[in-house]
Amino acid sequence: MKSSLSLPQSLRTGAVVFAALAAAGWALRPLEQTAWEQIERDAPPAPANETITAGLGQAAIVGLLGGFRTLAADFMFLKANADWSDRDLRATTTSLRLTTALDPRPLYFWINGARMMANEMPGWRVEQAGGWDVVPPAVQRAFTREQAAQGIAYLEEAIRYHPNSPTPYETIAFIHMVRLHRVALDAGDPAAANEELLQAADFYGRAAALPGAPYFDARMRGRLLARAGRPREALGWFVKLYPTLPKPAGLPGAQPASGRGQPTEDEVFAAAAADVLEQIRELEQQLGLPPEQAFRP
Amino acid sequence: MSAERVSFSMGRLSLIAGNTFLEAVRQRLFLFLVLLAGALVGGAQFFHDFHFGPNFGAPELKFTFNFGMGALVFFGSVLTVAATAQLFFSEIENRTALTLLAKPVWRAEFVFGKFLGVWAVVGVFCALLTGLLAGLLAHRAGVFLDDDPAVFAHGGQITAGDVFIVGALHWVKFGVLAMVTLLVASFSNTNLFTVVTGFFVLVICHLQALAHKAYAKVEASSAVLGVLIETLARVFPNFQLFSLEDQAGTAEGVSGLLALQVAGYGLAYIAVFGLLAVFSFRRREI
After folding, report:
1. What was the ipTM of the complex prediction?
2. Which of A64, A112, A282, B131 is deepest in the core (most CB within 10 A)?
């Protein structure tokens, strides 16, 4: 076979091809733009352009993966789980961050990743540092605080992608209520422990304010306020909450059945209005309120 | 009698396409890739535990769907580039192109005949895989619905229609890729160069959307540079347009209108690349 084209001929052909393709690109631009705008609207939210994503050359990864970011994220989460079973702190953290950078949509990634960071990684760090008997309690507590902060920061990022989901708020509240409250108590600092309960109450309150939030979020806020030594605030919260709850027949404030728009049995059970009323009565008793000031549903 | 003196014939074109198709399906590469991709798609059902969501059902179907489409795109791209280059250069290396083009056959008939033959083979590949994937997804959805009739109450069921629309768009994309490969083959001397360039173009076309974003940032700082980058970005089609996987499983499903727009975009590029391939091939000495 002879050489296909001479050099000047090749250049001419190349120039024509380039010009024709550029012209076609411009001509097809409106069609492309309309379709692309719709695709971008339906695609996973663009990952935050932060150090981790920039460092990974993520733009190229995302570009190459096209519509398969979700699949790549699934595989990366599998890797995170393998790293987790090896108790490899650095690899697990990196894999989790890569997973949510690739596809931030599944809350499952964020919630489970944050739980790994806040609940399990403190123990790994203690083991790496010599074990529970060797590492001083103050250092153990510092590990817990640092890991809890990492988990909370991860969940705060989740909230940017899922602003209407109560789950990240609930998980942050749980970290304050369980991990950080315990650490503060162990450190002999009841004021800090109380502050953690108040933080947890705040996040349960934020979760409760979101549409579709489970009923227990609101109850948790009230109970935590009471535990944190703010019974009056807790009472005020429960008193506001009670009228909004679906109630079983016979409970004060229950609406007569009218057929349409009635709460289901499951909803009534989940709302636990009787428990809320009981809490109100306990708090009234604790505050020594006279009967005339008691809540009347 | 020279080829230019006879009129363009769809009969001759379809004859070349038919021969190309038969030649392609006889290739071991086609069978090998069909079996491999089919095994991957079929094997996706064994990844029941690889789903990441609060419930069973929708997350597993989404994973299986993405996995299956991933196999289709990967092996389909390999098949498209390799088969196009192989079938084109086999004609030249075996000297059958000389014999063929010595007869009153237009070079356009040769190029478009080759294209249609390859595209048909890739179409069979896509149809087999999307059919297998749709069947698998329907089977799994049936199992989930038997367990819990409300499992897809909040969406997440991937319908056969969505699978076929997404598969069809990938087929159109492979058509553009085949034409690009034919354009490269029309001036290239070797099969290897054509295959490598074909894959580079595939990567570039997937990154084209990023070039647009870069253009948006540059445009503000320098108008001249911005126009230059925009022109460069316009030379390559945007292959990410053809990936509508994210719409499957949503409450609305894959938009038919959007799919038609994207298909139209792909077909327009097939025509443009085809005409350029003919233009380039007409100037080539064989």
Report:
1. 0.78
2. A112
